[in-house]
Amino acid sequence: MAVAYPLVTGTEAAALAARLVGEIREVTHGEAVVVAFSGGLDSTTVAALAKEALGARNVLLVTVNMGAYAYRRGNEIVLEMAEQLGLQQRCLLGQFAQHRVQRNGPACNRCTREIKLGMVRGVSRGRLVLTGANRSDTWGQLGLKLCNGYYAPLLDLEKPQIRAIAEHRGLRIPKIGENPGREGCKLKHLLKPLINPDFHGRAVAEANEIVLRVLRRAGVTPELANVKIIGPLGRNIGLVNVQPLPDPDLKAVLLEALRALPVLDEVHVVETPLRLVVKAGPGVMNDPHARHWLQHGRMQPDFAFPIEVQWTPARNNRLHTFQVVGFTPLPTLVVRGGGDCSPP
Known about the structure:
alpha/beta, GMP Synthetase, Chain A, domain 3, three-stranded mixed sheet, 10 helices, globular
């Protein structure tokens, strides 16, 4: 169930923005900073506030581009927003580092820490690195706003507050269309280890461009659009999530386009709740909080219908996180209390 947040008024947004501008000046001592910049709502809002606090000459945007795993529209948005902000922007290539990080299973947090933030820190030349981290990223595990050369001005804010600040400051941030919230990396839709970039990586990279291209040509602006790649390592199964659901004709076009992709062995449009069969390494299998976060925070927001998860221990000790190996459509979803997501 979505969380209902109170409406943020324009007066409240103005007060929040003014407080953050003052805080940025105080924390940075007015010195030059680097912003880890994706072109999305959070990093764009941070960049705008930093510019207001420090001046354009003291703010450099640094983007880690994930190559084949970056959406083409996402790349365009980065450049558009840098121009809208009137700030200098530098781009680094992180695709090949992702091959290493994701080899032992999906690892978005590690990717953010080691590649996105790590590479930005590497070119910062001692300048403070500002990030767009906020409460929606933390699942209740708030860290420090200022730590080890990183500073997260928005850390104690919820998404509606950040959106209200952006609107108050006149920021118009385009959407890719893959998700109503966090967008930008196609590799998050690979729900198994990235062992073979030419097989697993190509499947998730090309399938997710295809679905957006087909919808765009049909004149559809989706709220959610992705292809999850699951299955055993030797077989790529595509689960297509689109909201609103495509009509029968558009569904047929989507399936035809995706089934023509040689690295996809099966393609299914998600039209009912699902039970996912997930193998998990010991670190996930033995941690109820990790399993809860992976289902509700990592996977569910990208699925068109509710999911259940059947967790099973992995026998492959090289799997450090998780791998979705199969799925079963569910006509109805059994809802339980507590954090256990096991099937009936």
